[in-house]
Amino acid sequence: MLMVLAASTGAFAQYEAQVPDDMMNLEYALKADSMGRKILVDKGSYATAIELFKRSSTIYRRLNGNTDGNYVNAMALLAKSYVRNEQVKDAIKVTEKLLGDLESQKQTSDYAIILDNLSFYYAMANETAKALEASKEVLKICENADMPDDDLSSILIHAAENYSAMNEHAEAIRLQLRALDRIHQAYGLGSEKYIEELKYLQQYYEKDGQASKASKTAETIESLEKPGGGVRPVEELSSVEDCTYHRGDAYWCAEYFLTHSLSATNAIQAGQYVTTWCIKTDELNIEIDDCHMKCIGDCPTELNAYMCGCVILGQSNHVKKLTREMERQAMVWTVRHYNHNRNILVKTSPEMDKLNEYLEKGTLEEHLLELIPDKENVEPATK
């Protein structure tokens, strides 16, 4: 690997000489960086993005050296731009060069992520043996590096693909199962991401001659793809540890409850799952006081909807306690849910009816500022 990395540095030295001295400043680099990122988001001219990231990475490197965070990010985005522009071999050269620059950081999670990118690019270029070699090296680093769940699951997925491509299907299955467990915890069994990766597991079972497991996996996929198929039984939430493991299922159920009619398959069960999770978890502390009850009134279904909103916002923002702004957003979703389901509710609420009027007038957010004010504006309770 080191010989390959060393061979990739020559072209970049030539390019650095082409950047005029009057552009060699941080302000120019940051501007070029920002423009390049916008092109990637907007799916614009990737050729232009390539030139912008070439310039920004060159300037970062000259100003702050080849381990500077801005330089590393710009080089990674340069490689991504090359891939988008169908220049995979150039993406490989850029990434090999970057890994050579980061040789002193070989045991870090950042290095592992970039090396995983390289394995992916090798696979795209049909350099299968190199892709697997890179994945093996990444997995060794991950044994000791603190790796975020999303990054680790991607690494495991890429490694599984590379092992399978080299006909080592048993190892591909083992790694894919590890990745699926991570995805389950983060996103839930009903998530598109989980189902998509479950289909790859089915393929690996088939290639490994495990027809029975492939068939059972296909049945699981079919079940999960049905409406409400990702809703879990509340009985699995018997402890705090269970809730931690099933945080992704709670998130998925919260989204399902808020985005479907109460008459949809398993919608009520999804709401019950979220309520149980909220009661037993130590990951989220939902405060429901007088100001919230004045909004919801005596409407248990919408109290459930509010808790679903809190779960989504709490997990999305990685907080245990929601801000007032987040609480107001959760209440907006609650009122919308009420609006969509009012005609089928067993019990309606005068308080929710009033908020529904504000929703239809387009003034709900403004009114909620009065009902759920920022805490610094709340008058202290009188004794």
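The above is record 1. Record 2 follows with the same two-line structure.
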Amino acid sequence: MSTPIQTEEVTTEVDPEVEGLRRELEAVKADLDTTRGTLTAREADLAGAQHTLLRDAVARETGVNSELLKGNTRAELEAHADSMKAWAQTQRRTAGYIGRQARSGLAGFSVPSGQSAREGAAEAVRGTF
């Protein structure tokens, strides 16, 4: 036969001084969490400001608009500036050619083989009206 288990009611009295210290510890932990969050935000702000300064310095040195530069390190920013400058050189050459075509009225116009430019232009004009 099994004997029933008797349970005793345990009442624990909490010392008021210990309870006060526990509440104070919880408040300090909450303040610490808030301070850590603020510190993390400030570190992110500082990193962003340092990156902006670096990007602006590379832009001044290379002559490329800082808003166009991409990269996290000086080397990446300088490499991107070099590629942007090379790209801009090709665009200047292309823009000059397209500008001459537009001024001559031949932009986007191709002459079918076997026709002179004059015959092709006359046919294009007839087709528009």
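The two ends are 113 Å apart (CA to CA).
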